[in-house]
Give the backbone structure.
Amino acid sequence: MDKKKYEKGLHPLQKTFYVFATATVVLGAGLIIYLYYLFLYPISTININKNPAKVLTKTVHPGDPIVYELDFCQHTNLKGTIDTSIVDHFIVLVPNETSEFATGCRTADLSVITPRSIPFGHYHIVTTFKYLVNPLHEIDTTVSTQEFDVVR
């Protein structure tokens, strides 16, 4: 090989590898910054102003609705999932619902139907609002209620 031919610069193959390596490092850094944004960027979805929420029906029969008052501020138009459980010494799951609250602050009366097979006792409700902000980031907000009784 003639050394004088390449004294002024890199060999063309070395130059290609250098450009490829630099592009890989820059794209990798860009991907890390984008993933950081997807995972950790603070997005406010819903704020609960009163926790525990006030129960409006303190005594219910199995199969009857429990009504509770939720004071909250909705900060996004995203649809979310509402996971509700009735809790005593064990957990009674209630079917999920979709939240479609408009943005803004308000007080809403929400109701949960007690299952007909629920045992009598002293319970409270735990509700979790889940919002899928992007494919990699889900934000959960949990609220519980005051206690109520299920009677015969």
